[in-house]
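Internal ticket - ligand job 362, flavin-adenine dinucleotide:
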Amino acid sequence: MDSEVHVLGDGCAAMMLAARANELGSTTLSIVRPDAAPEPKDHMLGFWATPGLESAARNARFSWSTWSVISDDAKAELVCEDQPYHVMHKTSFLERCRASAVSHGVRFIDEKTHAAGHPQSVFDTRPPRPPENAMLQHFVGLEVEVDHPVFDVSTAVLMDFRVDQSQGMHFMYVLPFSTTTALVESTMFTPQTMPREFYLEAIEAYLFTHHNATIKSILREEQGVIPMGTLAPHDPAIPGLGANGGAIRPASGYTFAFIHQQIQSALVRRQNGHGLKFKRPHKRVDVWMDGVLLTVLRHWPHYAPRLFTRMAQSLSGEEFIRFMTGKASWRLRFKVMRAMPKVPFIRGVSKWMFSRPRRVVQ
Ligand SMILES: Cc1cc2nc3c(=O)[nH]c(=O)nc-3n(C[C@H](O)[C@H](O)[C@H](O)COP(=O)(O)OP(=O)(O)OC[C@H]3O[C@@H](n4cnc5c(N)ncnc54)[C@H](O)[C@@H]3O)c2cc1C
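stdout (structure tokens):
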């Protein structure tokens, strides 16, 4: 089955596929750098070291077997020694993928060369289009050095809600790299982004209030806006891959593990003699549950601290990972549902049914 495949974009999904081009049989793969692509920016990519991500985990910058979710009146601490939470720099991941891709003969071309070619298939990894007024996960993170040792390097704080909740759901994501250095990210789930000062002041206030620490130096900064919910493809005429192929988990923003699942199943199908095709790596029920959760967070964000701590408290570390990576059984889904406060979810289900956004921003 000789064929030529072009992939538009050279981010995570395109490069993860390119690094495995040797598994595509006789297919020739070209990665197309779009003319309109912005300058690449580095950021941390977090993931649990689930099966298939061993190589990414080996090259990660740091890992934690314990992670926590904290609110004013509750704290959940979860542990999984077998599949710790890892973070790596996106740019170093992309560089490693590129080296591997080059060794497998992948071509890196521009749009002009792409347009002059005759590929049998084209896949698009350019960003998907969010519906109007979509919920956004938006954040600014500072990698800081503080004035005295305060961080607990044994634990990654996935969500600490002890911050200003007046503008919508807001939490700190804290990845400690030493007792004095950490990535501290002020993160919100709301339809509107905030001015940069809001996140920076929130980080400073959080460090002072909860760690009695002040920032000595800022080592790095990252920021992002990730649309949540069901997103339309960048170009409906071209099949998508990665975030543009439905890989973003609608209510979490975690994408890396799902891109891996999407590519892994495409390669298995390909090796079984089928054409190359990338399917959305989420089950319908998980997308539905995320849709209801997003509705609750949009309309009643004050429930968020209770909701996330209750969910985390009800699960073991291993169950939490299975839920977050789309591997939950029905038993586990019911366990999560039982742990949630009931009133917001009943309201969320009815509101979700009548208010799903449909229009897409062009
Ligand atoms: C700051 C930040 C932190 C994140 N942290 C995590 C995390 O911890 N864990 C996790 O799982 N996910 C995380 N994500 C999400 C994750 O990085 C993305 O979902 C992932 O990169 C998706 O891969 P992709 O290949 O689909 O898209 P990308 O890697 O974004 O690649 C998109 C491609 O399209 C190109 N492109 C972009 N805009 C245009 C345009 N206008 N026109 C043409 N081409 C364009 C880009 O140059 C690139 O080649 C984070 C995202 C950000 C921004």
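Auto-summary: The chain has a mean pLDDT of 93. Residues 86 and 348 are 33 Å apart (CA to CA).
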